[in-house]
Design goal:
The chain has 166 residues and is α+β, with helices and mostly antiparallel strands. The chain is 37% helix and 18% strand. The protein is built from six helices and five strands, in the order E-E-H-H-E-E-H-H-H-H-E. The chain has a three-stranded mixed sheet with strand order 3-4-5. A hairpin with a 5-residue loop joins strand 1 and strand 2. The N and C termini lie far apart (43 Å).
């Protein structure tokens, strides 16, 4: 939860944004569920995710023009232990998914579009989006300064099995 100052100097808790940026630490780039399981297992997982969400984005309720939703991995970060833990999968429309991967959107020249969507979904001003993006990249820089252990044990109780080593 974020905190904001009230005029009387007390801190007030505000709910987290509906749509957030999730920047993966650089040591974990290219490590994801799809790279750790067989193609058949990934297809099974993502299609179940889409079905469970009714083929609608779990954040905005929308659908993309080319494909309705994409599967996004949910990660929890234990900053003290340096563990990046998979906690689930969620169905996102392409616009919400672009925001989640704001760093990639920036590399692809799509940060303005992602910023506008973040502003629209959260009801924020440009300034609020700018400050939020800066904060997200600060956290990313701190997390990217170390190597992370990636824990995908969430998959152990699903039908996915790690891909055979080549």
């Amino acid at each position: 939860m974020q905190q904001a100052n009230e005029g009387n100097g007390e801190r007030v808790r505000t709910p987290p944004p509906r749509l957030s940026i999730e920047l993966v630490p650089s040591s974990s780039w290219y490590t994801n569920v799809r790279s750790e399981v067989s193609k058949a297992a990934w297809d099974s997982l993502r299609h179940a995710c889409y079905r469970n969400a009714g083929h609608r984005c779990e954040i905005c309720g929308g659908r993309g023009p080319q494909w309705p939703v994409e599967c996004h991995e949910l990660w929890e970060y234990d900053d003290a232990q340096g563990i990046q833990r998979l906690t689930g999968l969620t169905a996102l429309c392409p616009e919400c998914h672009r925001v989640k991967h704001f760093g990639l959107a920036r590399v692809k020249g799509e940060q303005e579009q992602a910023g506008r969507w973040l502003m629209q979904v959260n009801g924020w001003t440009r300034r609020e989006v700018h400050e939020y993006v800066q904060d997200a990249f600060r956290v990313w820089e701190q997390r990217s300064a170390r190597a992370w252990k990636v824990d995908i044990s969430w998959l152990d109780h699903r039908e996915a099995r790690p891909a055979p080593a080549e």
